[in-house]
Amino acid sequence: MHSGGQVVVGVDGSPASLAAAAWAADEAELRHAEQVRFVMVSGDRTTDDEARATVGPVTSRFAERRSGVEATSDVVRGDPADVLVGLSGSAELVAVGSRGRSPLAATLLGSVSAKLAAHAVCPAVIVREHRSSGPVVVGLDNSPHSRAALRFAFDAAARYRCELVAAQVWQDFEYAPVVPPLDYELAELRDGALRALAEQLAGCAEDYPDVPVERIAPRGHPVAELSAAAERARLLVVGHRGRGGFTGLLLGSVAMGVLHHAQCPVAIVRDGR
User: Fold this and answer.
1) pLDDT digits (tens, 9 = 90+) for 61-117
2) 96/116 Cα distance (integer angstroms)
3) CB–CB of 21/71 below 8 Å?
């Protein structure tokens, strides 16, 4: 499991950013990180004082409840998404609320969180609701890029001491709606998805013998099925830069859909970190 790095969280005083701050502070402590860095982005000098008045109390609130993790606050000028993407290059994790005080705050997913999810170098976690119980759910699709997501998910489940739910969603696109597949054909497709799950889990599971694993292979649309699987989850993990399924970004229709609809925190894991 990780240790010794920096967890960065963007805050702006909105309820979603406060949920992200709480999640990031807990995560930093569980990871034994050296530092959790609360960052408020200011558009220009005229808003610097307001920014400090926002990020300072947030940092103090979480610093008082944690030992062993340094909590710092920074006001940085620039575009919020660009600043956080830049900081992701040296962080082990960056988090942000799903919505904030932006012109797109009324949308289900704000511009900052969408851009961060698409471009962060390290794993990015978009927090809609902070949870401290439930399983970790990871979506797999046979792509090499989902391996990083699986490793991240196993690591999180071991840290949380919870169950890992590995999901491979399958569909039968080859049939026209008026020609439904036969039962045995559906059974073969489902069995194939379960075999693919077993193959993907084989290497990782050996490294985490204490993490219980549930394998599921639901039929349907990946957005709907992954959101349903994560209904009571503590964290949903998906991969970045895959060629199919929900791992393709920017962001990819399914990955973006999951960020819109999943209520739990969603981790977007980039291949190679």
Assistant:
1) 888 776 678 999 999 999 999 999 999 999 999 999 987 554 333 333 468 888 898
2) 8
3) no
| H helical segments located in the chain | 15-30, 48-63, 80-87, 111-119, 146-160, 183-207, 222-229, 253-261
Taking the whole predicted model, whether its pTM rises above 0.90 is answered as no
The phi, psi pair for 219, rounded to 5°, reads -95, 135
Fold of 6-127: Rossmann fold (3.40.50)
Q: Do 136-270 and 6-127 fall under one CATH topology?
A: yes
Domain residue extents for the chain: 6-127, 136-270
Within 10 angstroms of residue 5's Cβ, the number of other Cβ atoms is 17
Alpha carbon distance 60, 41 (integer Å): 18
Cα 246 from Cα 251, distance rounded (Å) = 9
Q: Rounded to a whole number, what is the distance in angstroms from the first to the last CA of the chain? A: 14
Whole-angstrom Cα distance, residue 234 to residue 263? 10
CATH class (in words) of the domain with range 136-270: alpha beta
pLDDT band (50, 70, 90) for residue 45: confident
Residues 6+ apart with CB under 8 A from 4: 32, 33, 34
